[in-house]
Design a protein that fits this description.
The chain has 338 residues and is of the alpha/beta class. 43% of the residues lie in helices and 19% in strands. It contains 13 helices and eleven strands. It binds manganese (II) ion.
């Protein structure tokens, strides 16, 4: 499916100006898949004009990229500093399945871009989005992949295009992060890893490049989040609910590490709530719990933005919604009791 699809765009993309970007606050997988695609398209289509742009890059991704450039000074994907979105013939958005998740520089202007071809490349659950036929919109979605980086690896493989060493490091890092250090890996994840690690790549070196001592504020958030956590028992499942002012995702992971089966961490920001959820694989499997799908459903009811994976998802909602905790908890209990 991948190769024919890309082939169908070859003629169109020749001599065209193409923007490659990722979701808002690009993480390592977003960054790696976008940069990988940038080099792939350059090699595949000789006369394409590629532009890379990220409105914001997460700290972890930024630090990894800095370390990578130190190790490979010749690796230098060019990031645009300022772009005019109307300038491009096509826009690729990686690690993203819908417009609203792309950087704000795009999200405010979907109508303006109705004549621009936009291709989403993603591995997140996408409802029936990719089935909907929309003019100038295309979706390359592999829901069973643990990372968008793996889709890019497939592109290089399918078209037999070689990857520079630095890019292999970067894509490997993208896969490691999104697969939770391979905890959520499947056959495809490991095949992609094996392909990338063929050369003299030091896997352990990539792991150490990924290590960042958390800032003291994050460590405090984790500790406070754990201290404040409320234990709710539903059958034999232990649900942890906690409140922090930031680092909700990190705190949600911490709660799972200390023994909760499901964690819900609510962070009150200036004009919205951000809620991170995590669940152990066992509860997802046994109870058919898919946090991403669940939060997408809740989003529709209460007008939030939510989604994600089976065992890790998040939702943003306006502060007018006063009982977000109850809404999420009720939904989880309903699923656990089914
Ligand atoms: Mn991803």
């Amino acid at each position: 499916m991948l190769k024919p699809k890309i082939k169908s765009y070859l003629n169109f993309l020749d001599n065209k100006s193409v923007l490659i970007t990722s979701h808002a606050l690009a993480d390592l997988d977003g960054l790696a898949s976008a940069i990988g695609l940038y080099f792939f398209l350059q090699k595949l289509i000789p006369n394409i004009i590629t532009h890379l742009y990220f409105s914001k890059i997460s700290k972890k991704a930024r630090i990894f990229l800095e370390k990578l450039k130190e190790k490979f000074p010749e690796f230098d994907p060019v990031f645009e500093e300022d772009i005019n979105i109307l300038y491009f013939d096509a826009i690729f958005i990686t690690d993203t399945n819908k417009f609203s998740k792309a950087g704000k520089f795009l999200s405010n202007d979907e109508d303006i871009l109705k004549d621009t071809l936009i291709i989403f490349i993603d591995h997140h659950y996408a409802e029936d989005l990719h089935l909907k036929q929309q003019k100038n919109r295309d979706f390359i979605i592999f829901e069973d992949y643990t990372s968008a980086s793996e889709i890019i690896v497939d592109l290089f493989k399918d078209f037999q295009i070689s990857l520079q060493l630095a890019l292999k490091y970067l894509l490997t890092a993208g896969i490691i992060i999104d697969s939770g250090y391979l905890k959520f890996a499947n056959k495809n994840t490991l095949e992609s890893m094996a392909f990338l690690l063929e050369d003299n790549i030091e896997y352990q070196e990539i792991l150490s490049m990924l290590k960042i001592e958390p800032h003291i504020s994050e460590k405090i958030a984790k500790i406070k989040g754990a201290q404040r956590s409320e234990l709710i028992r539903e059958n034999d499942w232990l649900i942890g609910v906690s409140y922090v002012s930031s680092f909700e995702a990190s705190v949600a992971n911490t709660l799972i590490k200390i023994g909760f089966d499901i964690s819900i961490v609510i962070s009150e920001r200036k004009d919205e709530y951000r809620v991170s959820l995590r669940a152990k694989r066992r509860v997802c499997d046994q109870c058919n719990l898919h946090l991403g799908k669940m939060l997408e459903g809740i989003s529709k009811d209460i007008n939030g933005i939510g989604g994600g994976h089976e065992g890790a998802a998040s939702i943003k909602i306006s502060k007018e919604e006063l009982n977000i905790k109850t809404i999420i908890l009720e939904k989880i209990k309903e699923i656990l009791n089914n």
